[in-house]
Amino acid sequence: MRYRRILLLALLATACVGHPADDEDDFPGPDVPVVDPSESDSGPSLVLDFTATWCVNCPRMSSAIEEAMAARPGKIYPVAVHFGDEFSSAEGSALSTLFGVTAYPSAVVNLDKGSLTTATSKDLLVSRIDAMERKAPCTLELSFADGTIHAEVTAAEAGTYKAGALLLESGLTAPQTGGSDDYVHDNILRKILSEDIFGEDLGALEAGASASVDFPAGALWGGNFHAVVYVTEGGIVNSAAAVTLP
Fold first, then answer.
1. How many CB atoms lie within 10 A of CB 75?
2. Is residue 201 domain-resident?
3. Average pLDDT for the chain
4. How far apart are CA 243 and CA 226, in angstroms?
5. CATH number, domain at 209?
6. 238 and 43 Cβ atoms separated by less than 8 Å
7. Which H/E stretch holds residue 81?
8. How far is the first Cα of the chain from the last one, in angstroms, to the nearest whole number?
9. Which tens digit of pLDDT belongs to each residue from 187-198?
10. Strands 200-205 and 183-185
């Protein structure tokens, strides 16, 4: 009898063990309310998608982000941070460490470490965005000339701001576990163009005041490159915009 009781307890304990990115991740949890995406006017957001070609569930996260983008047209900018595959980079590995990523797929919203989630859910991503306390979004005006991205930032509210930029490449085909042999990979992080992921200092700006910053992007030969430029305040993304690089 004692042996059977021990065996039963062992089986119950084993049933509770699983990979943190398995199917249980679709439940947003009681502390994150799910909202109707059409009922919010949140400012533009940045979503880091920690992914890999060997990851079976990573296409589900990509689909969730695409659904969130469809729900918030022009307000969500994805960045695919690859790990351990042909698209990975030293900078991407450093970001995985910085944000404490231990499972794939994972997502981080607006550079907020507390937003880290393995849930492949559009509703959860949108809810994470809406749960953040952010100042009114800054206005971003972007241009590209002579290998340099010029960003003009105008503050909607007084605050101390930074600006960052990421170089991304899209339209690359490679086999994807859980996807297909000709899976198209988009928004792949190629380089952090700012001093670090949280951006370069713009200083304290009053409402209506502007500041500018230049990000050298270099000459790009072939490929499908663009850059996402974003403003942070208190380490959280306040606004974002994209510029195509010829």
1. 19
2. yes
3. 86
4. 6
5. 2.60.40.10
6. yes
7. strand 76-82
8. 74
9. 999 999 999 999
10. unpaired
- Sequence length of the chain is 246
Q: Residue 117 has what DSSP assignment?
A: B
- Full-model pTM: 0.84
pLDDT in tens, 94-128: 999 999 999 999 999 999 999 999 999 999 999 99
* Structural domain harbouring 150: 139-168+191-245
Does the residue 210 lie in any domain?
Answer: yes
CA torsion through residues 221, 226, 230, 235, sign: negative
Token output for 213: 């910053």
Handedness of CA 53, 191, 187, 41 (dihedral sign): positive
The token duo for 194 is 């700012």
* Three-state secondary structure call for residue 131: helix
Query: Do 137 and 239 touch, CB atoms closer than 8 A?
Result: yes
